[in-house]
Amino acid sequence: MKGEAIEQGETSRAPMARGINRGTSILDLILRLLALIGTLGSAIAMGTTNETLPFFTQFIQFKAEYNDLPTFTFFVVANSVVCVYLVLSIPLSIVHIIKTRARYSRLILIFFDAAMLALLTAGASAAAAIVYLAHKGNVRANWFAICQQFNSFCERISGSLIGSFAAIIMMILLIFLSAFALARH
Amino acid sequence: MKGEAIEQGETSRAPMARGINRGTSILDLILRLLALIGTLGSAIAMGTTNETLPFFTQFIQFKAEYNDLPTFTFFVVANSVVCVYLVLSIPLSIVHIIKTRARYSRLILIFFDAAMLALLTAGASAAAAIVYLAHKGNVRANWFAICQQFNSFCERISGSLIGSFAAIIMMILLIFLSAFALARH
Q1: I need a labelling partner for B145 at 20 to 30 A (CA). Which of A51, A93, A172, B174 fits?
Q2: How far is CA A64 from CA A45, A60, A81, B57, in A?
Q3: How far apart are CA A92 and CA B180, in angstroms?
Q4: In 3D, which of B178, B168, B175 has the Cα closest to residue B105?
């Protein structure tokens, strides 16, 4: 009798609730794919950046590569790790579209999403700080703007930040979506 | 009859569930207070950093302040904003200890926690990138390590990162805790 009563109460509002939960899960999958493209693009754009200047002295050829600066290496690593994580999380996201009432798998996703959000933000903003320095330099610390010489290098590294920052926004929305799905149970 | 049945089903497992939820909410409050102390300490430590070297030429007195570098100003602002947010979120956290079944207020907290996590991580890691540069310099970009001259300045700015990074870990745990409380409904 008890079981029946609860089941009745559930079925009366089930189709709509399931529809919203399924919509949430599909949106989750789309956001995950977009974040994946963003981080992959950022990692590739930064990882393939190098510029050789068309003049050189006897001893030095002027050349700039992303891994001249450890921060950019960290940026590539962070984006790659988050990208791999997103690929691995896609099957779980698809499971959530089918099994809309899953709870603990969503909880695990939220935790790792938050950790990956922190990693991605760390990489992107550390790189942004160095890119800013490359553009503007700093008079007080006597650090010169290197973008005057390495122009296309600078454009490339600045551009590669965009995908990463877009992915950060996606990740925040992903956390919210998973939490929203949990709150609706 | 239906209402009664559901109520019966709830009361049988209610005391334990409520106890766990209350424990989660208390842990949430403690983590929030710790993160608050971390960000406040970081903001104050960085904001009060300056060093005047004991020698000067006719024209220049050698002096280093945190706001010589825009990244450190951003670090102070980010930490202050997160600190104010944490203060404002404490009343809500206390409400959750009393009303353990609150759902949508937890959802709002998760969203803002995630956004603040991103802001705090951005500030902390941008500052970390510059601190790293101040310590090590970069030969390829011709940026010199300034820590040889400004020794105590560098120690202070390095130290002020600790509170921020500790707060980042607290924020990740806070998001997980709120999601855990939602999953248990």
Answers
A1: A51
A2: 14, 12, 24, 36
A3: 18
A4: B178
- Do the domain assignments include residue A1? no
CATH, residue B31? 1.20.120
Q: Average pLDDT, whole number, for chain A?
A: 86
Q: How many CB pairs under 8 A join A and B?
A: 155
Under a CB-based contact definition with an 8 Å cutoff, are residues A39 and A84 in contact? no
What's the half-sphere exposure (Cβ side, CA atoms, 13 Å) at B82?
A: 37
Chain A interface, best mutation among B143, B150, B174, B180, by max A CB count within 10 A: B143
Evaluate if pTM is beyond 0.90.
no
A141 touches B at CB < 8 Å = yes
The answer to which of A114-118, A159-163, B144-148 has the lowest mean pLDDT is B144-148
Q: How far apart are CA A77 and CA A80, in angstroms?
A: 5
In which domain, by residue range, is A173 found?
21-50+67-183
Query: How far is the alpha carbon of A182 from chain B, nearest alpha carbon, in Å?
Result: 6
Rounded CA Rg of chain B: 23
Whether A10 maps to a domain, the answer reads no
Query: Could you tell me if residue A15 is inside a domain?
Result: no
Which of B1, B70, B118 minimises the CB distance to A121?
B118
pLDDT of A8:
47
Domain count, chain B: 1
Q: Is residue B2 part of a domain?
A: no
B50 DSSP β-pair partners: B65
Predicted ipTM of the assembly: 0.85
* CA A137 to centroid of chain Cα atoms: 28
